[in-house]
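User: Here's a chain of 211 residues. Predict its fold as tokens.
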Amino acid sequence: MYEVKGVPSVNKIAEIELKRIANILVFFAKTTENFGVTKANKLLYYLDCHHLLKYGRTVIKDKYIKNCLGPVPIETYRKLNVIRELSSLTENDKQEFNIDHELLFEYIEIISEDIGSNRPLEKIVAKKDFEKTWFSESEREIMAELAIKYHRTSAKELSLKTHNESPYKEAKMDELIDLKLFLKDHNRPQNEIDYAAYTEKLIEAISTNFQ
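Assistant: Prediction complete.
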């Protein structure tokens, strides 16, 4: 693939976006209790919603669908399902997976942990320290607020909470959720999410610093 000098390639953008998602998962794995796959889905959702509410844009480049357990980030959840499988494989078997999943697996793994409930927790475990370089100050601010607020909140409690909010209530099952409806619940104008424009500037800045 040809690259224009000073402009990050599509592959580089995808890699940085994946590292951002990986580090969000690392952050919450280190700062909240019983951080499993379902809780991760909900905290990613609230990270996007609260950052949109306060700063006018989302944090990750993903879309959410309505699931019986609440909003689910489509691409991130797909990657987590692969990590779940990858965590249980031998080293030789892991070589069959592509670099995206191997990169995410450098940061996290998923283990089964008995927490005394009907089913074991699919716990996300951090394998690296949190790398704050990938995030803006406002993103780290909202992440910290959520970690404090939902430190001990269970996945079930978070799921039930999302069920009572407009983005979930106004979507059809298994269809896309409109995050702008979160603003409606907080009496804020439903402005357009200009994630793409912001991301382009952020990725370019990060790429320049790490060349």
